Amino acid sequence: MNKRKYSNQPAGNITTGSCACGSVRFQITGELRDIVNCHCDPCRRWTGHFMAGTSAQIKNFFFESDSTLTWWERTKEVKYGFCSNCGSSLFWEDRGRTESRAITAGVLDPPTGLKTVLNIFSNLASDYHHLDEEIKTTSGDLPGDQKADRSN
Ligand SMILES: [Zn+2]
Ligand SMILES: [Zn+2]
Question: Whole-model pTM?
Answer without folding.
Answer: 0.85
